[in-house]
Every structure is written in C-alpha cells, then in structure tokens.
Amino acid sequence: MTATDISSLRDLISRFLAANGPTEQTSIEALTLEEGHAHLILRTTARGAAFLQDVQKMLEEKMTQHPAVTGLTLSLTAHRPTSSQPRQADAARGHRPLALGRKPAGRSAPPEACLPDVKAVIAVASGKGGVGKSTTAVNLACCLARLGLRTGLLDADIHGPSLPHMLGDQQKPTVEDGRLRPLERWGLETMSIGYLVDREQAMIWRGPMVMGALTQLMSDVSWGTLDVLVVDLPPGTGDAQLTLTRKLSDRLKAGGAVIVSTPQDIALLDARRGVTLFEKTGTPVLGLIENMSYFCCPHCQERTDLFGHGGARKEAEALNIPFLGEIPLLRDIRCSADEGTPLVLREPDHPASQAYMTIARTLMTELAARDA
C-alpha cells in the first residue's frame, strides 16, 4: 500500500460520486487501505443514503477493480443538521439520522433479532475507567473458552478500543454476504471497531454515530452459534450501556452483567452506579470483581494493599449481589496484555490466572443454571 494507491482510490471514488449522484449530499469521511483491504466511510444525509442504496453495488465493483484492493468494507456516517428545521423535515418524511453501520433503508432490527444464535451475553462493566475492566474481560473470555464454551468477545468501547492490541491481532475482518466475519483469536470469535479503523485515528463521534457503530457490531456481524458472548463495555453508565441492555435484553437475562472495581471508595461509588443502572434495566447482575486487590512485591513477596482491600466484598454484601473474587495487581498481568497474549493462556498456572479461572467457573455454573 502506497500513498499513490490511496490517492488514486480516493480519486476513483470522487469521480464515481460526481458522475452518479448528488455530491453535495455525500463525501469521503475516511479511507484506509491495509494489505489490500479498503475501509471507506462516507459522510452522507438521508437523501444521499437513498442514492447510495441504489448505486452501492456499482461503487463496490468499481473499487474492487482497483489493483490495490482485494477486500472492501463500506460504512456510512451522518451529516449533522445545521438547524432544527432540516431535522424536523427529515422526521416528517420518515427519515432517521444515519450513523456508522446503520443501514440506509429499512428500520433497525428489533432486540430479538440481535444475535439469534448466541445463548447468553455477559456484559463486563465498570462505573469508571482505569480499573482493569478490559483486561478482566479478555482473560475471563479466554477462561470460558478453555472450559469448553463456544465463546465470543465484543469490544463495545467505540472511543477507546483496546481489544486488537490485547489479543495481538491487527488484521482486518472480511465481509461475506454483506456481513462482517469475526476474527478468530485464541479460540475466541472477536470483533472490535479497532479492527476497522487506523490505530492512530481519533474516534471523534457523537452519540448517534457511536450507537450506530455499536448496533453494527452486534447485528451486522456473523457471530454464528455461541454459548456466550462476553461484551467489554466502555466505562460509565451512558448510551452504550442503555443500547446494549435494550437490544440484547433476552440474551442478557440468560447471562448478566459483571462489575469490575478496585477496592478504593471512589471506584466503588461508581461501581454502585453501574449496579443501579443494570438493575433498573432488568439486567441480572452476576457479581462484583475486586481488581488490583493487592500488590505482592516480586522480590520479597510482601503484600501491600495499595488501594485498600476488601472494599468490593463489603460493597457486594451491601448491594446484595455475589462477590466473584479478587484479582491482584501484578506486573505479569500488565505485560501479557501489552504483549497480546492473555495471562491465562501464557501462564495458566499463575496465581492470577487461577483467580480468573475460578471466577469463570462460577460464571459458567450460573449460565448452566439459567439454561436449565
């Protein structure tokens, strides 16, 4: 891939749009080309989307004729109305704002249509960032796969996707029959917006675009038959959590939410908000994990409670939810995530790996009880 390839491909797309439709309605938002796979994001409007629906196949054929292109992913994002009048006019005509991954024509799939072949969803959440939620989600998913469950892992953090780095995979997904194929890694079916965009690209997207991308990662991916899909949620209690609980309510009732927190009071305060959100949306809370529970000096083995200790257990008791276990703060956990090999696979006998596995067995037992 060269700058010349990108430039010539961009010119090809611009000429096609100019020759086949209203260019003031559609423009190139982003274009990447890695190892032959082109990912094109077009910024458009409701009118432009209707035009693109008619000519999409022609555009895809044109792009795949380019000598540097062997695969293609096409996504849409929305023009933001400059005033309330265009938005109201669109609403009167039955048009909805477009977001990345939302299909131009037709309505969003109802909740029951999402993930029809996935038995249960486990949402790994936290009230705040920096508590090790993503590392926990990856290691728990690997443990569930090792226990024999057909397991998927979805990175739902649109603004800060970390899954590709933590799994050591920077490939691009392929498209079959108009749907993305998950990438298989460490026995997991995985998907992340990080697979589709440049690693250095800032995800400066507004709420509707984020929700559209999240919907695409759930509905427009060929997840296949899974016993469980582990979803690594972004931190907080906002739109992403509400979208997930709305669209996957049935799957979450067969699974549930796992809350990750450190022992310190400020993290537990935010974790409490997360528990409240899931309870209000009717999502079962499987339990609370205390991450970074303590630190063991690698030289003298002295244990230090850097963030306090036991706070999550007390909070779980106060909230009347299960306490799932403690994960220590260890350099090996951080190194394994940075190197792209989860600790439970790199060192399955490591004490931290055993802690992850114990929690995973508890979760599997709960899933089996709900499936009975």
From TrEMBL:
Keyword entries, A-Z: ATP-binding, Hydrolase, Iron, Iron-sulfur, Metal-binding, Nucleotide-binding
Membrane-spanning intervals of the chain: none
Nucleotide-binding is among the record's keywords: yes
Binding site for ATP: 127-134
Keyword Hydrolase found: yes
Renumbered residue ranges of the record's region Disordered: 79-112
Full protein name: Iron-sulfur cluster carrier protein
